Amino acid sequence: MKPKIAIVEDEPQLVGILTYLLADEGYEVVSVLRGDTALATIEKEKPDLVLLDIMLPGTDGFELCPAIRRRTTAPVIVLTARKEQEDIIRGLELGSDDYLTKPFNNKELVLRIARVLGRSRKEATSERIGYGELSLDQTTREVTVAGRPVSLTPTEYN
Ligand code: CA
């Protein structure tokens, strides 16, 4: 099945470009032009990744990002026309996985989407075993005690 991307963006021209670009890259694309209807669409469509604009009619991206986070495990990439550093930092603090400032390079967007999706897939398939404060990830072979990483040799790990 094709990974599905939800675009939350109010500029129809940009939505058109992104839809074409991402469909060409093998993604299924759904789009919403308003912030206040975005959550309903995301809940219905269950995308694998959300591209989220900040300045939106209805509800803005700052408000939407944590709301999306509460409803889905899909990673969020913020697309913002605002270049101010503090807005970007705020976007990341709200739980977006990555951000791009407009105008962005199409290739860069495609690469970042692939990277973020790869990352979220890895998290979804990682197999963690917990015992008390000890946690062990069978995929990455990472061991933590009370949240702190412990470095072990392969023999010690086994
Ligand atoms: Ca906008």
Note the main attributes of this structure.
158 residues; alpha/beta; 5-stranded parallel β-sheet; 4-stranded antiparallel β-sheet; 9 strands; elongated; binds calcium ion
Structural summary, described in words:
With 158 residues, this protein is of the alpha/beta class. The protein is 41% helix and 25% strand. It contains 6 helices and 9 strands; from the N terminus they run βαβαβαβαβαββββα. The chain has helices at residues 12-24, 38-45, 61-71, 85-93, 106-125, 154-157, and strands spanning 4-8, 28-32, 49-53, 76-80, 98-101, 128-131, 134-137, 142-145, 148-150. The strands form 2 sheets. Strands 2-1-3-4-5 form a 5-stranded parallel beta sheet, with helices on both faces. A 4-stranded antiparallel beta sheet has the order 6-7-8-9, with no helix packed on it. The radius of gyration is 18 Å and the shape is elongated. The two termini are 36 Å apart. Calcium ion binds at residues 10-11, 53, 55-56.
Report the end-to-end length measured between terminal Cα atoms: 36 Å
Strand order within the widest beta sheet = 2-1-3-4-5
- What share of the residues does DSSP label as strand, in percent? 15-25%
- What is the total tally of β strands? 9
- Which molecules other than protein and nucleic acid are bound? calcium ion
Helix segment tally: 6
Sheet with most strands: 5 strands, parallel
- The low-confidence runs, each spanning 5 or more residues with pLDDT under 50, are none
Taken in chain order, the helices and strands follow as EHEHEHEHEHEEEEH
Q: Structural class from helices and strands? A: alpha/beta
Mean pLDDT, to the nearest integer, reads: 87
Q: Based on the structure, what is the oligomeric state of the protein chains?
A: single chain
